[in-house]
Amino acid sequence: MIRVLFVCLGNICRSPTAEGMLRRRIREAGLADRVEIDSCGVGPWHVGEPPDARARKAAARRGLDIGDLRGRQLVAADFSRFDYLLAMDHDNLATLEKQRPADCRAHVGLFLAYAGLADTPVPDPYFGGERGFEEMMDLLESACEGLVASLEQRLEASS
User: Which residues does the entry assign to the active site, renumbered to this chain (predicted)?
Assistant: First the structure.
């Protein structure tokens, strides 16, 4: 089992959308029984809340329902539970690196590296308009495609 955790600021826009999108892609690839996916925020502001209504709407336009997801905050156990901790931006990545235990063997990095955009953040659409959510969706879709390919290679190599 490979475990992937998406991390953003509040866990109501970027990371839950990435979670829902990757779940669909993993299911379509026939890997749902081999990959576990979750998301969280670095802060406590939206614990227990559903994703932002604008994120749900943007996801729904692409046939994705993320309304059942609920926000949670990053906890120390995530560093040992997950194989990948994928940050949406540099601030989230810095928080992960600061909290990362010395013995953590998980991959910690920016999610858009899987879209060939190694040092690029997913812009936070929270304070913007609808276009920001569409841009977020485009970036997440591209990175999900690359991540699925990477996970498929890893699972094939371990078989």
Answer: 8, 14, 124
Cβ 111 vs Cβ 39: under 8 Å: no
Alpha carbons within 13 angstroms on the beta-carbon side of residue 71 total: 20
pLDDT tens string 20-30? 999 999 999 99
Q: Which residue among 23, 25, 124, 144 is the active-site one?
A: 124
8, 13, 40, 144: the catalytic one is 8
Q: Which of 14, 24, 54, 72 is catalytic?
A: 14
Cβ(156)–Cβ(149) below 8 Å: no
H helix or E strand, kind and range, residue 84: strand 84-87
Instruction: Tell me the HSE value of 137 on the side-chain side, using a 13 A CA sphere.
Output: 17
Active site annotation includes 8: yes
Q: Would you kindly state where each structural domain of the chain is located, as residue ranges?
A: 2-151
pLDDT computed for residue 129 by the predictor? 87
Pair of tokens at residue 123: 């812009």
- Residue 46 pLDDT level (bands cut at 50, 70, 90): very high
Q: Which CATH number describes the domain made up of 2-151?
A: 3.40.50.2300
